[in-house]
Amino acid sequence: xxxxxxxxxxxxxxxxxxxxxxxxxxxxxxxxxxxxxxxxxxxxxxxxxxxxxxxxxxxxxxxxxxxxxxxxxxxxxxxxxxxxxxxxxxxxxxxxxxxxxxxxxxxxxxxxxxxxxxxxxxxxxxxxxxxxxxxxxxxxxxxxxxxxxxxxxxxxxxxxxxxxxxxxxxxxxxxxxxxxxxxxxxxxxxxxxxxxxxxxxxxx
Amino acid sequence: xxxxxxxxxxxxxxxxxxxxxxxxxxxxxxxxxxxxxxxxxxxxxxxxxxxxxxxxxxxxxxxxxxxxxxxxxxxxxxxxxxxxxxxxxxxxxxxxxxxxxxxxxxxxxxxxxxxxxxxxxxxxxxxxxxxxxxxxxxxxxxxxxx
Lengths: 204, 146
Hints:
Chain A has a five-stranded mixed β-sheet with strand order 1-3-2-4-5, sandwiched between helices. Chain A has one domain: 3-Layer(aba) Sandwich (Glutaredoxin). Chain A is of the alpha+beta class. Chain A is 54% helix and 14% strand. Chain B has five helices and no strands. Chain B is elongated, with a radius of gyration of 16 Å. The interface between A and B is medium-sized, with 14 and 17 residues.
């Protein structure tokens, strides 16, 4: 009996070590993801912080989508960063949003960055815009993360890679995932039209 | 030119026009209707509540018109209708280009940014549709007189 327990314990220990050593495939809490994990549909939103249509989508469409579908558990919402090379300061804006995500302030800061797009887009002074919604202590922390976290852009790299697989070539782009099928919609869509399309898919 | 050549020329034009409408309709139907709604929205001409019905019906109408032109039945009237539809599209495209809208044409599915070449192409399509219409009317007149 004792002899048979030794290999089992060794195997268990090896399994535990493997689990500990393997890099996590998904973060413990993905701050870009919101809603019911068992929702029938996921809407993935590729945006660029400097893109005006993305701002419109974020300010006009996503609040309604969140209230009507995400908060009610029907849809899971996933933000994906897709910074375009043509936009000079979108990378720094993305860093601030993701640093805020690490601090549990993603939605607040992402919304502020989009809302103040016209203020920081000409000169890249995202810091000033973000400082309006965070405390001094939070700003100190966010600046530190932006300055020194070498893994801050990891999610951006992952989003861009997924964007390549989804053949994303503009922002905003929505990927609607339903029953394993990924349906791409390029461009801005008014909320009533998007709602009708989502309802149609959910009814199938 | 001998009448028989006109007949063949009309047949070629008719097939070309039919293929254009079939291609445009099928390309849109292969995508979600919401994608065509994005293009329609981009032209900033339609009220939001008209986007969905038009995005859902226009591609089918294009396919139906393509089939009707292909069949040759009432060709003069269907090619005349095609000319009118292309004229409307062309007017919308010219207006959009003139006011500097950066919009996905959506003409043959998504992914084509509106530009001068779009206008050249649609003008050529209008010329073809008009030629088929004139040819069909003349052919009908000739047959009726005989």
